[in-house]
Amino acid sequence: MRLSRAALVAAGAAVLAALIAFPLVFTDRFPIHVMIIVFVYAVMGVAWNIMGGYAGMLSFGQAAFFGIGAYTSSFLFVTYRVNPWLGMLAGGGLAALTAAAIGYPCSKLRGHYFAIASIAFAEIVRIHFNNWKLIGAAEGLTIPTERASLAVFQFGSSKAPYYYIILALLLVALGVCWGVSRSRMGYYFRAIKESHELAMVLGVSFVRYRLIAIMLSAFMTAVAGTFYAQYVLYLDPESVLILPISVQVVLVTMLGGAGSVMGPVIGAAILIPVSEITRVKLGAKGTGIDMMIYGALITLISIYQPKGVWGFLSGLGARRAPRPAPAPHAPAPLASAPEEARR
Q: Which residues contact 317 (CB under 8 A, 6 or more apart)?
């Protein structure tokens, strides 16, 4: 049967408690690393979901915003010793402004035209960064190791602090997505997704709200990029600006369920461990296996459950919900007077 709101809150609290206790139970570095990468892609999936799942903009250029966030904070720290937490805000702001500059001329593009434009934009950013000597060009940037401290966003060999930070960022991203989905702006996004013409008839400025969606998505994605840069302490264009990152973000969201708050988290929890485990266990021999699994899962979901795993789970709950009792049959109408007379 359908769970009550109290039961859903209790289940969510139980899951959150389990996630908080995870590093205390699994003390090995690899399980914690896998969960950190899951959370990174979950944050990016939630960010993409605002733009793609709600506003209907199918973007394959999220890697550009991810890289802008990573490079901005890293460059400011390496060159000017700007605190990485401030660099995170600067990277998010720069990514949002870049999204506005690119999104405005592309605001009227729809469907695959917008997707192609987003791929072209991401490739332009990658090529530019690959030749930009100020930020290390193809050699990339190495973030100097500092004394372990929350103030400088470095914790030595311990992965647990990174785990809790990215978990907190994911909770904030989910809160933002939940708030957007239930706000007037969220309804505007859905109207734009369904029909630009209908949105205009209703008085919705689809250019303005599409810009808001892409800027919000870019900011959140850049925040994830800053976290990733501080986590690995090295970045180059081929690690943070490549197309497979954008594709993986889209796959994570579509598999979990685009247009739902928890869909990207579920998708990341399924796909990312597959990628990390095959990479570690199989090495070079496993190259491409994760993408084959991704393709098979996405094909099955597209055919049998277009709403994703979250849509499947929601459907199960709806089918198990008790149906209302049928209304009693109404008595048959009385025959008309002329018909009675004929009898």
A: 2, 3
CB atoms inside a 10 Å sphere around CB 69: 32
Report the Cα 333 to chain-centroid distance in Å: 58
**Residue 134: exposure state from Cβ atoms within 10 A (0-12, 13-18, ≥19):** exposed
What is the per-residue pLDDT for 185? 92
Angle at 26 between CA 21 and CA 30, to 5 degrees: 125
Please report the pLDDT score of residue 342 as a whole number: 44
Per-residue model confidence (pLDDT) at position 284:
56
At 316, list the tokens: 């199960």
Single-letter residue type at 322: P
Residue pair 45/264 in contact (Cβ under 8 Å)? The answer is yes
Ranges of residues in the chain with a pLDDT under 50 are 1, 330, 332-343
* pLDDT reported for residue 323: 56
Angle at 278 between CA 222 and CA 266, to 5 degrees: 50
Contact indicator for 140, 239 with CB cutoff of 8 Å: yes
- pTM value is 0.88
3-state secondary structure of 141: strand
Query: How many angstroms separate the Cα of 110 from the Cα of each of 3, 55, 56, 196, 210?
Result: 38, 11, 9, 9, 11
What the block records as the tokens of 38 is 């899951």
The set of long-range contacts for 299-306, using a CB threshold of 8 Å and a minimum separation of 24, is: 301/254, 301/255, 302/254
pLDDT of amino acid 52: 92
**How many whole angstroms separate alpha carbon 239 and alpha carbon 35?**
19
> Which tens digit of pLDDT belongs to each residue from 210-257?
999 999 999 999 999 999 999 999 999 999 999 989 999 998 998 888
Instruction: Give the tokens for residue 159.
Output: 């992965």
